[in-house]
Amino acid sequence: MTPRTAPQRSRPLTVRFAAALVALGSLVVAACGGGAALPDEVQGSIAEATTTPTTAAPECTPEQQQQSAVATYAPLDPLPEPGAMPAGSTMAEIVERGQLRVGVSADTLLFGARDPLSGVIEGVDIEVLRLVARALFGEGGEDRIVYRVITYAQRLPALEAGDVDLVAHTMTINCRRWLRIGFSSVYYQAGQKVLVKTDSGFDSVDDLVAAGARVCAPEGSTNIDEIQKPKYAGIVVVPKPDITDCLVAMQRGQADATTGDDTVLAGFAVQDPSVELVGEAFTEEPYGIGANRDDVDLVQFVNGVLDRARTDGELDRIMRTWLVDTGALDEADVPPVPAPDHSRPLP
Amino acid sequence: MRRSFSVRSADTPAKLQLATAVTVLAGIALAIGGWYAIDRRDTAIDDAAAAARQLIQVQDVRVQVVQADSLASNAYLQAGQEDPAVRAAYDERLGEASSGLVAAARAATLEDAATLESVNRDLAAYAGLVEQARANNRQGFPVGAAYQREARQLASELVVSLRTVEQSTRQRVEDSMERASRSSWLLVLTAVAALAVLLLGSWWLARRWRRLINVPIALAALITFVVLVFGVGVNASAMSTARDAVRGELSAADLVAQARAAGFDARASEALTLINRGNGAAYEQQWQLSASVVELALEQACDRHDVGCGTLDDHLAYADGHRLVRELDDAGDWDGAVRLATGGALDGVDPSRDFERFAASSSTHLAEQSAAAGAAFDEADDSLGRLRVLVVVAGLAVAVLGAAGYAQRLREYR
After folding, report:
1. Pick from A91, A154, B202, B332: most CB atoms within 10 A?
2. Cβ of A116 and B296 within 8 Å?
3. Does residue A172 share a domain with residue A291?
4. Which residues contact A94 (CB under 8 A, 6 or more apart)?
5. Are residues A201 and A311 in the same domain?
6. What is the ipTM of this complex?
7. PROSITE patterns annotated for this entry (chain A) (predicted)?
8. Size of the A and B interface in Cβ pairs below 8 Å
9. A16 in a domain, yes or no?
10. A324-339 pLDDT, tens per residue?
């Protein structure tokens, strides 16, 4: 609103005065014009994320499913001595490089977990890899291992891309995975179980079904697929990005139970005395060491190393150290080291 | 006294009385209208200043929260070797964030106050999660990392809430400034009306009594004119002082505060990429996002306000160090990466040192700019306060002088 109410008289003085007022009025308008905006909130940006093209996971044909998933290639016989790997073999390549690159977990207590005080990653998976490293490089070979901590989802891609030579990461051998990578013989026979609060009164997965309990499982895992089967209808599934988040969910009262491999759950029971494993395993999860699909010789070499460790009791010692001595399992509950199946024909 | 032939003498005292009444009313209108107009602008500028303080306060809370999270994440990485000073700094940040939230809630709108209160509740939950992470970690339990992730998730939700409060507070600054810019017209209107009444009166007196000038009324007109010119001038300058503060110092403070919050966020993300060895890819993305906010905000502050140019350099140096941390970790040297990230220099590269420089320099700039913005608002407030008194006095003076001027003529009829 611009006040221009000066008296309009014919006298020159008044006219001039009116003009001055008009000028003043416009000054007021000028002084008022324009807001005082703050800058917009700064929005960041990141370079386009490089997404790996997701190809549909290949399915096993009925024919392939006929073959036992745990069947692997026959071990190298005799096993080459450290430092004397056959020329041109994958093992010779690794020895020449001076590094065995492995993909492991760093948060699966008992199998692959970093001790926060020492910074060392340790567990059953790690011990098995150390056996392989010693067989490749000789005494002190375990120091040649370069650990790459990877997620569950990165296990197959890391091998396919050749980022790592071997993966030991509580990995279940199955037909579909054989289509993408190679597996060693079974070094541990795990199974899917449930973990509950000690005072909950739940003694098996059936109790959880009957009670309509909230059961946590990691998203995208074979564990969650299993628990969503019709026979478990009634269970309220609580999905979490990582199995460790399930222990957090239980401790915070967001879930009554967690389902996963007994190995991982045993590690949870070590970390939290108020939870326990109950009931029988309702799936079979045979663990194997993964290698690139083309590194058949490396799979054969690892099978030879595992065979030797079965014979000389080294595998038993590893299981006792990590599963019994830590108080995770009673001696009687440790499954026997499975016998190898070397019936898979070489490609 | 001679009388004009054209005006019937019987009408003249009535006309003089009417003119007196109109002039006194015009003077009082000037006093009240001017006071009201200036008061409205002053109040609006006060509101803008209060909102500006609130914005800085809420941003400070956000920085404290992110800083606490960054300290907690780094302490987690060090586990057994946790530095007690880091722990103390973490506690201090949390305490300051909490008291900052209480202070901010008092000065907030109802809606914002509710958000801030829920942020304060979540902050307590956050501290609980960090404790769980720490306790588990010290026992060597990897579930601690999951707690740290959970804590981080909650912290990012807190930050989102705080950012919505910041955004609504920015809006309050702008709305108040808009209101301030619209509220001076009543002063101009009443001053111009009073001037018109006085000039018309002078003209009538001059013609009727053939006197060139009636001293009190001319004086009143002069005062009104001065009030008009001076008032519009002061009013406009107070407005432009406030506006410059918003466009200048407050904008610069806003940008530096955003850069600071994003900088600490990046630092926390860096620790999380290492805590979650191998599961850290998502946090590296978060690092890049936050680092780009730091750079954009500081580039704007440097280009437009010549503030924080050195801070930008500090951050770029830190970013180089961060890249080396990632290279080491990606190449399998996790221990080396952790050493570098938590205070050990490598070939002269020391991201911790560079980050501390960034933190210190951004803190200095933020304090300087917010203090300057506050001072500018105070200056505008002071000058409007003085003007308000002046206008009231002037309006009353116009009323008195006007009455006195006409009284000189009116006396002739008694």
Report:
1. A91
2. no
3. yes
4. A85, A100, A136, A165, A298
5. no
6. 0.75
7. PROKAR_LIPOPROTEIN
8. 181
9. no
10. 998 888 888 888 889 9
